[in-house]
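INSTRUCTION: Work out how this chain folds

Fields: amino acid sequence; protein backbone structure tokens

Chain under study, with its fold:
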Amino acid sequence: MLFKGIWTDKFNKPHLVADNATISISHAAPYVVAIINTKAPCGIDVEQIRSKLAPLAPKFLNQQELILGGNDLTKLAVLWGAKEALYKLHGRKSLIFKENLAIEEFKSSTATSWTFTGLINIDNEHEKYYMKAGRFNDYVLVYTA
């Protein structure tokens, strides 16, 4: 694959010029991350673990996800990042985080890594994506795998 550049569509979703692979990009100072997938749509997000996630959680998490995240700021950052990654994968602006995006219970988890399933639910259609997350310093990286 020879890199020929990136263009963005009307929804500001990035695409590779002259290539069928998909790309997703995220940043949280001082980090920039990207993922390219040659076989399927992809999404990525990097989030700083911040105290402001706790009061915002009820606005972007459903009841099951609120229980899953609890008062753990790292888990809340993973859940927020997972929904951001799904939103970027979908690539259109019509999604409501609390209603159209869902994170299923963590399948495996350590203090610094998680695997789980993310769901995009639109008009009774459900798309499932295997996802991974990891913690480094005061940040989490979440991506579709």
In short: The chain has a mean pLDDT of 93. Residues 30 and 93 are 26 Å apart (CA to CA). The first strand starts at residue 6 and ends at 8.
